[in-house]
């Protein structure tokens, strides 16, 4: 691709998305993320019958957007998607942990991992549901 794409004007901060290597890098992290999830006995069952290619596409868009990439997530609302699955705090934490692992394995710097996971953790109220009495 472009070998000399590193020149940036001084006052233009590089997004985390660019810093990690853009779309191919994020897509690779998301691939690894779902390998870890499907390998986890606590989580595999949730994904039974889910079309993984579509899921990975959406997740790649979402993570790209969170990292400041020029990508807009246009999938369904996270609350709608996860509703009725009985996702616990523990399951959420396990999924978030796999995201950290996938990012770490890819050599992403800790500050970027931190920002990404903090943003993703903000989705918890839309995703976790069996800790509250009423839905
Ligand atoms: C950590 C934060 C999470 C984020 C940001 C997230 C994000 C997403 C996104 C973007 C999709 C695709 C939406 C679409 O197809 O339109 C999705 C689908 C899905 N997620 Fe999550 N998710 C998270 C946590 C979890 C957890 C903890 C579980 C279960 C343990 C889970 C289970 C699922 C399943 C089963 C689907 C597929 C739903 C379907 O297609 O019917 N997610 N998620």
TrEMBL record:
GO molecular function, one term: oxygen carrier activity
Alphabetic keyword roster: Heme, Iron, Metal-binding, Oxygen transport, Transport
Pfam short name (any one): Bac_globin
Cell membrane as UniProt keyword: no
Cofactors: heme
InterPro entries, sorted: Globin-like_sf (IPR009050), Globin/Proto (IPR012292), Hemoglobin_trunc (IPR001486), Hemoglobin_trunc_I (IPR016339)
Cofactor note: Binds 1 heme group per subunit.
List of residues binding heme: 58, 82
Family: Belongs to the truncated hemoglobin family. Group I subfamily.
Protein name, per record: Group 1 truncated hemoglobin
Organism (species): Agromyces mariniharenae
